[in-house]
Design a protein that fits this description.
Elements (H helix, E strand, L loop, with lengths): L4 E3 L9 H17 L2 E5 L5 H15 L3 H4 L13 E3 L16 H8 L5 E6 L20 H26 L18 E7 L4 H5 L6 E4 L5 E6 L5 E4 L7 E3 L7 E5 L1 H6 L9 E3 L8 E2 L4 E2 L2 E8 L6 E2 L17 E2 H9 L4
Parallel strand pairs: 1-2
Antiparallel strand pairs: 2-10, 3-4, 4-5, 5-14, 6-11, 7-10, 7-14, 8-9, 8-11, 12-13, 15-16
Helix pairs in contact: 1-5, 2-5
Amino acid sequence: MELPVVDFSSWYGFDNEASQKRVARELVDACQRVGFVRIINHSLPESTLEETFEWSKRLFALPEEEKMKAPHPGGWAVHRGYSWPGLEKVTQIMGADDDGELKGKLREVPDVKEVYDIGSENNTSQPNQWLPETTLPGFRAFMTKFYNDSHRVGQDVLCALAIGLNLEDPGYLARRHSGNANQLRLLHYLPVPAEDLEKGLVSRCAAHTDWSSITMLFQDDCGGLEVEDISQPGTFVPAPPVKGSIIMNVGDLLQRWSNDRLRSTNHRVSLPQLSDRIEGSNRMTRERFSIPYFMSPEEDVLVECIPSCMSEERPARYEPITCGDYNKMRMATMY
């Protein structure tokens, strides 16, 4: 299985209704068959992505005491700031009342990564935890702009999905994503012995789905992302990095919204496939940087079946739920 590729170059320009419909059809087809798609020729300049990764590397190269000047708040209610290695455990367990013993066993295999989470400056319920300006001058201004630029690209993707789903209103999804509830995540996967990953003693990021509407992922050149082949459950295939591209995937909310027409597919971060990403006689993996951007509606938005995705033959499969209630159910398992 290879990731489908959708070229967004024809989405932009003049008098392009037919071209936009073609892009929209290709995008929805990919999201139905695989749940993941590689987007090329989008509107984020490659130079901007390169600069974003440089800022991320500078952030994680800071001494621990400097990064801890913007710590992730305790608990799961606020999802911002710096998370040190071992704090977060990605899991598919649902709900705060699930089996505590099972959650404890999952945490015995730590995720060897550190994270810095950023949201909208307008989101008062999820306030950003910024480093002092003197610690990393210019970081806040750059990341705020990148957050907004990524939202603009995501709005194009949501409009394309709406058109591809035959919605009469192409802004149906985009209007429900103001940008205030999105999340920009800077990720640094630390070097780790390949043998420890192979034996399951540690994890980079365990198999999971995203609970957002869509995720746009920017990768460095290390690799390690794997996507489940839905025709062979339990089989994961590499999704190698391609410079300048975006890997977009469907999240759980959009699967609910689309009545399971679009797929939220399991994925994980494991060993990179290429031998030059594993170094030295003790087979240490290279460090890896990646930047996912999660697009979600605000907490009070009701997620209910998209009109064009249900019929008498295919009634709604999920009860309506607000985005806030769904997020609480998922986030309570992570910290």
